[in-house]
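Good day; I would like, with your permission, to put a structural problem before you. What I wish to show you is a protein chain and, alongside it, a tokenised description of its three-dimensional fold. Thank you for your consideration; the sequence and its tokens are set out here:
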Amino acid sequence: MDNCENQVNRRPKSRTPPVAYVISLFALLSILCEGYDMGASSGALLLVQESGSITLTPLWQQMVMAGPLPTTTLFTLIAARVSDRFGRKKALMISSFFFTLGAAITVCSNNRQIVLLGRLVLGCGYGFSSATTAMYVAECSPHHIRGRFIGMSQPLLTLGTLLATVVSGFFSYNKTNGWRYIWGFQGILGVIQFFGLLFLPESPRWFMQKSLKKEARDILMRIRNGKNVDEEISEIEASFQEIQRSNEKSGVDVLIRMMKTPSVRRALMVGCGLQFFAQFSGVNTVIYYSGIIIQMSGVGDVSTAIWNSVIINCFNLTFAIVGVWLVDAVGRRKLAIIGLFGLFLSSCCLATTFLMAVIHSPVVSRRTDLSNNTCSTYSLCDSCIQDTSCGFCFEDKNDVINGICLPVSSSLNTLPEVGACNSSSTNFEPAKTWAYDYCPVSFSWVAVVGLALFLMFYAPSVGPLPWTINAEIYPLWARSSGNGLASMTCGFCNLISTATFLAFVRAVHSYGVFYVMSFIALLKLSEEMHESESFIYSQDDILGHGATSNVYKGISKKDGSFCALKVFKNKRDSTWKILKRELDILTKIKHENIVRIFGMEIDGCTGQPIIIMEFLNRGTLYDQLREPENLYGFCDQMFLSLLKDLAAGLTQLQIAGIVHRDIKPTNILRSIVSEGREIYKLSDFGTAKAISGEDEMESIVGTEEYVHPAMFEKAFLNREAELISSIHLDQWSLGITLYHVATGKVPFQTKEGLRRNRMCRLQMIKQKPSGVICAREHEDGGIIWERELPATCILSRFLSKEIGNTISHLLETNLAKAWTIPDFLRNVETLLKKVPVHVMQPSQDRLEIFYLNPQDTIPHLKDAIAQEWEIPGQQQLLFHGCINLTLPFETKSISEYPTTRLGQPIILIEKNLIKDIKIPTLLIETISFPKEISAKDSSIAVQICAQIYKMMRHFHHHSHIHDCMMYTVGIINSLISSEIRNTQLLMGHFNYHSLKQEYKSSFESVNILENFTGYSTIRKKYKNVKILFKEAEKLSKIIKSRNIITANVYYNVAERNYLEAIFKKVKANFDEHEKLFAKVREDFQNWQRKSLNALEVISNLKKRLIAETTFQKIYENTKWDKKIRQQTNELIACSKTEANRLSDLNSALDQLVSFDMCFK
């Protein structure tokens, strides 16, 4: 335990290209603009009142202050659509345009309605900014600095607020137009951002979303310093697939599902509750109205009040920056609790300040003799200013004296209607000071201290944490909707608190109630969000679970990268033993096919130990096998890729002397490497142990379906059963895993299904004859033994036989006959060295993959074809591209030829197409949903989609067959044309009187030959079915995900009916296609017979012509191709007789045919 605590391997530092910083700088200017507006409005409102150019009542002050908020909420929703359709960059440019336009309108306004309009336009910019900025920065930033850039949002917001108060301070001495300059400065920031964005790239993730992979790659190469970006592109593709798998529903469906899932519902209550209490804690009112609050506390001079705001915002910025470090050092939950408690204390300080201001309010010592005026009835300054129609006029000489309550001017609240403070009045006294909305007190500095403390505790905790926590507590399928609801809660609460502050300002100390409520609400956070020293994870983002631990998707606090966190369920000594064993093994083995480990930490909330491993973005092999397209197992390419990686991983275990003891699909993880190739990795070494002679196992380990029979009996049926050595465990579980991958199901099942009737299953395995790889219980109770993979397996016949043989040796119950892991690895090494050769025979609708040794030649391929398809070697014409592989000059080994694949196979043309083989009919089951909705809908949807996949594979196969038919037509026509040219060449150089009539009749037979043009309807129908197939695949995954991801199953009847209707349409198209393709195949066979007969006629004539003259004459009088002349020179030297030379010349002419085809 001591050796593995808190030793987290740090990833190597990457050099960040300058363009990444430039992108983030200009994008984050939006945050700076938003912070600037929050700070600027306070000073601007004070100066508007001071200037007297525009009259703003308390109601209008609230409306102007809260003006941007409703349009922000509305345009946040609009911006999301614009961002998805036109790009993140364009959405940010729209936001900067609105910033500039709103500032221009506000600056040029001459009445309060225009001011409000400008504020509303600014809100449109905030809406686009809040929906796009973080997304654009995250998608363009490298992994290792992404979290740092996104974490700059809160410091930049506070920097903008500080900048605004400084600008307000400088312009506060201009009483007439200072407020215009303050709001106008924001337009300058908008212009800078707009023109800066013109030169920046679009988000690569947006290009990937629009299927523009090349553009995304180019941008990533530019902003990643020219590094290989295949791995990042693969991660983006995987994230799209993950979101599509788990969130392919309308917004209404997601919300209903969130409400029906208890853990997500609790997370939503916490997320929205944090935003609710954060806003109603009064923070935005403190920031928006800081200058007004300071003035209300007794600071009469506007400039002084604004410069005091600068001091407060310096605290805000300082502790926002400190908070970036405190989050990692203290932890989110502790920091939030400390922050909330600090807010409670600072709010009490503010409340006490205003309470003392009421208690020590100056006395109204002089009375007015105005009639019909209530102002004369007040005896205290506080009572006087509470009445919006009155203000306090006083003389300040080290103490407030000669105070008088006067009515406010109906047109301008900065002056009294009459009296000593009205400069136009006959009673004007210059020494008097007019206070419309404050009472002069000597302890106003306490309010400044209270505000500074408030922001000091808010900036590092309650400010950023609601956003950080909301980004972490939801599972992936609910993250977008959860964050959207939390943001809407934030906007709505912000609007209410800002728009009603002045109306409730007399009760500001009542905000303490909300602090207590927020403190209590945050205590529930520990139920939803967990963290260790370096990582955070949500219990809903589970990747896998086992008997001793669960694996969650974690997020690095440092750079925002993902990892897999294996969290153990308890803290017992046995847990530490398992943990240490796994750490020791994974630290010892470092290989690309073994999952990497970064270290070990402790959960800060529960104290549970955590192993930190690499996050593999493609899930497990078991997840892959559960996809509908793999319901019948893997194809050759996928199977061999898995086999290669599995063998490489097991080889490393053998070298290290370790037996895994729990090999199964859920312990084989998938990922994408930098070359874009999918790779498989062995994981979960909690039960592994070192091999030491014939040591017995110490404990019962393994999973029921994959565990060795001896272990199965010991674990589930007979505790007294004998154990076997650990070294024999892996081969059995490996054999079961390979069978599962090859067929899509596990072997040895009873009729009741998996994990039912265990005694029957044990007897089935114990009675298994040698060589049997699968057994099924018949309905009558008998057992059906199977020695080969089932017919539903989609592996090629050769590979199916090879893998079946391998599995039979691995599942041998007689340990003396059973293969060991080294035996298996030697077999796999031999198999992987073989070269796959795709051969297609269009006339018989056949495709087969032959696996040959690298040194094998074309004759070996012809022998394999003859054995598999019963076509004699002399009847085979093989073409790969323009190369005729059956000519005697083609003697290279198989490995020297271009690689074949499904789209470019070797074409087999039979010289004598005599018999037509019977093509097996593809059986498609008719599946339908039951009337009643149930949990079985998930498996039925998968079966329906699997049948559609089967038909799609058949459509795809026929499409390739049709293409090869057309290619074969080109080959045969080229052969006929070349033979005709060679024959005409001979006829032109020599006078063949005896063969003139035969020459004429031969060409007449060729000229009447009709060409085969194929069927365009084949491609059209294939295209239509592909569209239906995509719809069916999407719907089946929707229905499947509802059963897998949430225990509260929610189905849509319309989706079930639609999927069933699509299946029927595809089935109808399939049946029609089968009939049409049978006709295509018949027409092609007839054309091929006639064409090959015509080719034979011309070839026979050419041979006759050659036989009528001598080799020397033909060689001397014919203008041969240079390569043919070189080859014929070699033939002359080798040929002993005239007959041999003529035969070799015929071969040389055949080679010329091949050259003609290549030239074409």
Residues 249-360+441-525 form a domain with the Growth Hormone; Chain: A; fold (CATH 1.20.1250.20). The radius of gyration is 41 Å.
